[in-house]
Amino acid sequence: MTIYELLNPEKEYFKGKKAFIFDMDGTLIESMKFWNHPSQYGAHNYPSFQDYIEDKYAKDVVPKKNSIEFLELLHKNRIPVCIASDTPFSTAKDFFKRYDLPSVIDFYIGSDEVGCYKAQSPKIFLEAAKRLGFRPEECVVFEDRLPYCKDVKKLGFSVVGIYDIDCEHQIDEMKQVCTDYVYDIGELMK
């Protein structure tokens, strides 16, 4: 079954696509508040910021609505999927264990593995496509940050913008830049 046949048939841009690349924070999971507002979530009670953020991933970070179900659907239908994130896997490993994410994705690639953050270069997305075995134009990237959506679009990827409250001020521009924009990833399912 092709991606287009599997998902919402109104999403014509899925035709000919063969793989999905997901950002993690703000796209698949509700974690940005812990990164952007640490003082509101007790960061001062930890020996270091790293201890604080790892504890949040282990106990408090949750998936966004329908994200796990979407990944499970893709995996069940053998659609190649990876996560490409600025967050090192070592930071989020306990979240992955809690939700058994390794069982529904092909691999995880962190910016630490490619030598630069997304803000410096979209290299991580090119590396993800390469590891999946596809060209950028055969992949769809899911991302919540406007600058990264712009970068991947220039590289030939289709890009689905995902709503995140921390990027609410950029919705109008996201809708112009992205191939599609959704408030809930469930909108992409039949």
In short:
The chain is of the alpha/beta class. It is built from 9 helices and 8 strands.
Describe the overall structure.
By secondary structure, the protein is an alpha/beta fold. It has one domain: Rossmann fold, CATH 3.40.50.1000. It is 37% helix and 16% strand. It has 9 helices and 8 strands. The chain has helices at 3-6, 32-36, 49-59, 67-76, 89-99, 111-114, 123-132, 146-154, 171-177; strands spanning 19-22, 29-30, 62-63, 81-85, 107-110, 139-143, 158-162, 180-182. It has a 6-stranded parallel sheet with strand order 5-4-1-6-7-8, with helices on both faces. Strands 2-3 form a two-stranded antiparallel sheet. β6, α8 and β7 form a beta-alpha-beta unit. α3 packs parallel to α5 (89-99). The protein starts with a helix and ends in an 8-residue tail after the last strand.
Strand and helix layout:
Elements: H1 3-6, E1 19-22, E2 29-30, H2 32-36, H3 49-59, E3 62-63, H4 67-76, E4 81-85, H5 89-99, E5 107-110, H6 111-114, H7 123-132, E6 139-143, H8 146-154, E7 158-162, H9 171-177, E8 180-182
Parallel strand pairs: 1-4, 1-6, 4-5, 6-7, 7-8
Antiparallel strand pairs: 2-3
Helix pairs in contact: 3-5
Key descriptive features of the protein:
190 residues, alpha/beta, Rossmann fold, 6-stranded parallel sheet, two-stranded antiparallel ribbon, 8 strands
